[in-house]
UniProtKB/TrEMBL annotation:
UniProt xrefs under Gene3D superfamilies: 1.10.220.160, 6.10.140.2220, SET domain
Region (Disordered): 287-306, 369-388
SET domain location: 11-254
Domain of life: Eukaryota
Signal peptide limits: none
Biased composition (Acidic residues): 288-306, 372-382
Xref: InterPro entries: ASHR2-like, SET_dom, SET_dom_sf
SUPFAM superfamilies given in the database record: SET domain
Pfam families: SET
Protein name: SET domain-containing protein
Length: 388
């Protein structure tokens, strides 16, 4: 199925500085459901894990799934490419022979987060030499107060400075930028997989990085990593529902079905703020019987979804007073097994008529706007292509 999207010639969002929230995007006019607010190409991309560790093989240059025989890197064969073209592209950029030999010589790092940070710092180092202007843009993104004393920065600096040439301060600063701004590009969704979907690659997007977080977002981000043609690593942000002019446009930095405690913990640890959005103000008063018993970090996605559902049922009450955001979960959270993605309409036609279809940003399922499951589902598994 091909849907032709027509981004408006005028920017639909404008940047503003909001006290206590930093730079943020505001709607520059009334925005209709499904309108494309932003399409953005990455400043840099890096793999979250090597292709050998991923649940499905992917090309370490274009990041698409590898469907035929992979082409291994001649210097470190656990890294694979989808074609000789991608291999030579990688060898002449961030996967140069000297870098991949050095990578192969690194001590084994058991922590996947640390391995991803190594990839990030190498990609940042490559960016600093190939595009100083883009490296400067990376440094201009939000990063809080990076302290070089952080033990991970000290470790990564000692490991990588001969390769990157970065000082300890620059290493710490870059790690902080990455933590606050990286978008995860996920492995393809498979309904049979329970548990958390794995990130295939991370990307830093210079414009999308200005979206602030809200636990009930009014926009959401789509990527189409496996599609053909240029721009498969671009991301697109679309409006979930009507957004009045001047209203802040926010994404959720993680799946919207996370519980209150887990959301607050992630926002504080990775983004350095306490969320006081409307939803959090309601949910902070909800009772959470499992609060002290379970370590949220250890829970798998299934348990989390179940727990969220239980919390909703327990706290929803008879009316909507305790659960004013119930509409969001009914309408905009995908109910496909193990999914929990956020749904946003496909873009309206150039004449402004609604598409009538709503798309999940995780499993890609399309649903007729008025249908909630059953016969209305367009579940033919075709996937979709959006021509930007
Ligand atoms: C990806 S950046 C978003 C753009 C950022 N405001 C800026 O000035 O560049 C993430 C950071 O924005 C801030 N932020 C995002 N959402 C927020 C919110 N709901 N309340 C307060 N600060 C928020 C936090 O400092 C967070 O670490």
């Amino acid at each position: 199925m091909t849907v032709v999207a027509s981004p408006s010639p005028e920017p639909l969002v404008r940047l503003a500085d909001i006290p206590g929230r930093g730079r943020a995007f505001l709607a520059s006019r009334h925005i209709k459901p499904g309108e494309i607010l932003l399409s953005d190409s990455p400043l840099l991309l890096y793999p979250a894990a090597s292709a050998g560790e991923a649940s499905s093989p992917f090309c370490s240059h274009c990041f698409r799934s590898v469907r035929s025989t992979p082409t291994p890197c001649p210097f470190c064969p656990s890294v694979v490419f989808c074609s000789t073209r991608c291999l030579s592209g990688a060898l002449s950029s961030c996967h140069s022979p000297s870098i991949c030999r050095a990578l192969a010589a690194l001590p084994p790092l058991p922590d996947p987060e640390l391995r991803a940070q190594v990839q990030f710092l190498l990609a940042a180092s490559s960016l600093s030499s190939t595009s100083p202007a883009n490296f400067h843009r990376l440094l201009s993104l939000d990063g809080g107060d990076a302290t070089p004393a952080q033990h991970e920065a000290i470790f990564l600096h000692s490991l990588l400075s001969p390769l990157t040439g970065f000082s300890l301060q620059v290493t710490a600063t870059l790690i902080a930028k990455d933590r606050r701004n990286a978008f995860g590009l996920m492995e393809p969704f498979r309904a049979q997989d329970s548990g958390e979907r794995r990130v295939r690659a991370y990307g830093i997007y210079p414009n999308a990085s200005f979206f602030n977080h809200d636990c009930l977002p009014n926009a959401c981000r789509f990527d189409y990593l496996d599609r053909d043609g240029d721009g498969n690593t671009d991301i697109m942000v679309r409006a979930i529902h009507d957004i009045p002019e001047g209203r802040e446009v926010c994404l959720s930095y993680f799946p919207t079905n996370w519980g209150y405690k887990e959301r607050q913990q992630r926002l504080m640890e990775d983004y350095g703020f306490q969320c006081i959005c409307d939803r959090c103000e309601v949910e902070k008063n909800w009772k959470d019987e499992d609060e002290d018993e379970e370590d949220m970090e250890e829970e798998d996605e299934d348990e989390r979804l179940e727990e969220m559902d239980e919390e909703i049922v327990e706290n929803a009450g008879d009316g909507n007073d305790e659960f004013p955001h119930a509409y969001f979960f009914v309408r905009y959270v995908c109910d496909q097994d193990n999914c929990g993605g956020t749904m946003a309409p496909l873009p309206p036609s150039p004449q402004g008529s609604p598409s009538g279809l709503i798309e999940c940003n995780v499993c890609g399922r399309l649903r007729k706007e008025d249908g909630f499951g059953g016969d209305d589902d367009d579940d033919d598994g075709d996937g979709i292509m959006l021509d930007q």
